[in-house]
Amino acid sequence: MTTPVFTRTDPVLGEFSVRPVDPAADTPLLHRWVTDPKAVFWLMQDCDPAAVEKEFRRIAADPHHDAFLGLHNGAPAFLMERYDPAHRELVGSHAAQPGDVGMHFLTAPTDTPVHGFTRAVITTVMEMLFADPDTRRVVVEPDTRNTAVHALNKAVGFEVVRTLSLPAKDAYLSVCTRDQFLATRGAC
């Protein structure tokens, strides 16, 4: 088991930790998550386990992209990706600034949703990203149809900059500075 690289305790929901994805070991779990109907915006609905493993091996080998498995009280509960928007995902669509970090996240499908859980996940992701003193802004590009994530992004401080036409989707380019995030946490 890979050691967590970040841990946060939520006052209501308990411990959230993040560790690097192990493509070989985590593929069965990640395949279930990214092919679930609720993960339609991850654009992996038709992938078989071999394709999922190949994608996470590609990410693991990429110096500008990382994938992390999130745990809630020790159990796998979410997926997070961190990328450098100057080199991946938004090249040619976004003029990356020093300190920009791109992010994607996905909560695991569940039959027993917990109130506030996804907000705790995105808060954990943002705290992890801003724990790096070099991170000045977090940049995201959610599908324009993903209304649930737009509300979560706004709740943690993201502002929509503009709409982008990317190869696989129309997206809202959104950014969140450290100060914007801290203001939502009451710590500014």
Q: Any overview of this molecule?
A:
- The chain is of the alpha+beta class.
- It is 29% helix and 31% strand.
- The chain is built from five helices and eight strands; from the N terminus they run E-E-H-H-E-E-E-H-E-H-E-E-H.
- An eight-stranded mixed sheet has the order 1-2-3-4-5-6-8-7, with helices on both faces.
- Strand 3 (65-72) and strand 4 (75-83) form a beta hairpin.
- The chain is globular.
- The termini are far apart.
- The relative contact order is 0.14.
Describe the secondary-structure layout.
Blueprint: E1 6-10, E2 14-20, H1 23-34, H2 49-61, E3 65-72, E4 75-83, E5 100-107, H3 117-130, E6 137-140, H4 147-155, E7 159-166, E8 169-177, H5 178-184
Parallel strand pairs: 5-6
Antiparallel strand pairs: 1-2, 2-3, 3-4, 4-5, 6-8, 7-8
Helix pairs in contact: 1-2
Unreliable sequence segments: none
* N/C terminus separation: 36 Å
> How many DSSP H or I helices?
5
> How confident overall, as mean pLDDT?
92
Assembly state (oligomeric): single chain
Structural class: alpha+beta
**Biggest pleated-sheet summary:** 8 strands, mixed
Helix content: 25-40%
Radius of gyration: 16 Å
Our estimate of the beta-strand percent is 25-35%
What is the total tally of β strands? Answer: 8
